[in-house]
Amino acid sequence: xxxxxxxxxxxxxxxxxxxxxxxxxxxxxxxxxxxxxxxxxxxxxxxxxxxxxxxxxxxxxxxxxxxxxxxxxxxxxxxxxxxxxxxxxxxxxxxxxxxxxxxxxxxxxxxxxxxxxxxxxxxxxxxxxxxxxxxxxxxxxxxxxxxxxxxxxxxxxxxxxxxxxxxxxxxxxxxxxxxxxxxxxxxxxxxxxxxxxxxxxxxxxxxxxxxxxxxxxxxxxxxxxxxxxxxxxxxxxxxxxxxxxxxxxxxxxxxxxxxxxxxxxxxxxxxxxxxxxxxxxxxxxxxxxxxxxxxxxxxxxxxxxxxxxxxxxxxxxxxxxxxxxxxxxxxxxxxxxxxxxxxxxxxxxxxxxxxxxxxxxxxxxxxxxxxxxxxx
Amino acid sequence: xxxxxxxxxxxxxxxxxxxxxxxxxxxxxxxxxxxxxxxxxxxxxxxxxxxxxxxxxxxxxxxxxxxxxxxxxxxxxxxxxxxxxxxxxxxxxxxxxxxxxxxxxxxxxxxxxxxxxxxxxxxxxxxxxxxxxxxxxxxxxxxxxxxxxxxxxxxxxxxxxxxxxxxxxxxxxxxxxxxxxxxxxxxxxxxxxxxxxxxxxxxxxxxxxxxxxxxxxxxxxxxxxxxxxxxxxxxxxxxxxxxxxxxxxxxxxxxxxxxxxxxxxxxxxxxxxxxxxxxxxxxxxxxxxxxxxxxxxxxxxxxxxxxxxxxxxxxxxxxxxxxxxxxxxxxxxxxxxxxxxxxxxxxxxxxxxxxxxxxxxxxxxxxxxxxxxxxx
Lengths: 376, 376
Description:
2 copies of one chain form a homodimer. The first copy, chain A, has about 375 residues and is of the alpha/beta class.
């Protein structure tokens, strides 16, 4: 029986991972970690009886320790505690579902400890792909993408040769078809109203700006070792085609499925085997129409900004990501307007002097500095 | 350098195979065969300098022999001559592009001689799949589908496990959306007016009746060893998605490409390698929309008739195919109306007493008898 640790078990991907675990019924949950939602984490701990639970927030960890005093479950805390959970001896696979750069360090430690990674945390590869991928290869660790797009590409790559282009689909987010003028005064509520996917708040905003797609392009570059010039983005409103691979002979393989994150989660959990689907089958004749458009790069400049960050490399994607995380939080907190998210990211990138091969420590420092600068 | 024999080199698939040969520039054409179009066959022979050309029509073969008297090319004739060309020592792969059951016997001989088969002739597997596929396995011969649909499935099958359903797409042909009343008086010209594909006359009519799709379902059953209940048909008007494979976890892999037969031809010729595409790349954002519908099984009963023939097995698919070939010819000759094609096939099937495991000889006899009966 495969044993897993879920980092970020109370979030959107975390809870859906547990739904997949329930459905599959042959996976042991050995560790759960959360930021601070100890009410849900306690319920999860009582249900799945992991060996370890970790809480990032120290005082909430202390609280949870009291709550779980009647159990054998070890409660640990802080970043250190999360890394402890991610490297537990009994764990075979780590589901990396922490949102943001906070997910990087435990994934790094888990790979060092030889754990396979089900990677839902984009920032790991966006900020440190040049470190993480070689390390994973060195350690013989599987990097299984949990993003629907990257999982689709993973499934469409039948052999690692003859790949001409990766084609990542984008739903277009909440504001597809809008003009810059129309976006001037959109609200947080408007931005959170995604047409197809039920996701966390951060990623839903990233979807509306197309930042999410930019991050995915950078992630795909690292994950599949494909040049940026060969990673295309096409808007596909229905979110049925999750991504495609174009081959040398101009044939294209596309992966389709109902928009349900539990499908790529399940695929990672069961890999290299495949189980019956928790996601519903696709009925194409009911869906009837799939539409595709060029992305509007003028209204949504985040895409080209991300491409620029990726191509520049070094510490630039760290800045791109950190500035975006900070700016999205400011938008969610009502401090800036929607269009200012990308503007702030661009300014932060303009001010930055690139460090060619940043270490994990430098990445963390740059990240902190960028956030600090933006929040002043 | 791979050496090929093209059976049916003057037909639609044959001429497109030679275009792919020109494009690939590293394939030797060792043999060409045709029914009777010796003008084109002579030009092909002078250009590609094969060792052998074969003509089915005896007097036309004699004529071609005179025309090519100034060359070293061996000219042979009749069914025997075509089988000779298909089993030539120097040939590695036989492109089976003869239309109709006439293609069966040379394919059988070619497999016996250990040649890989690029199979464009549906009737080979429709009428004799239970003989051909085990023989190909026994001889270690590659069966490479040249139909766009079967090639798509071939490309979408990444592993031979976890396959839930094959989903074959149908363009819907010239008469998609019509009612039976509207089909009462359609002309040959109407039927030949296919929306997407430029194909031979027989297959274009089969596309209009959906007979072609029925034949493809039977072919797919044999080629991929999948039960009839797990082979679905979905109408897809744009002919961009050439077919799909649904996996156990409800993910679907689809192969897309511009509708160009030279793509699957080239893929078969270069297999297991892949070359740059003779077919143009797909630009999904220009195509914009892909649509899917349930097939109209009432207006186009050929689909269920073919499924019934396939499921019944034995000699029934032979009858289905032979009656259809004869009826299509009668329609093209202006002897029957469009809707009578399927009616004649159904009647022939009703009258037939199934032979469980017909031999190649019996298949040929049944075929002749059915055609004879219909032409009386």
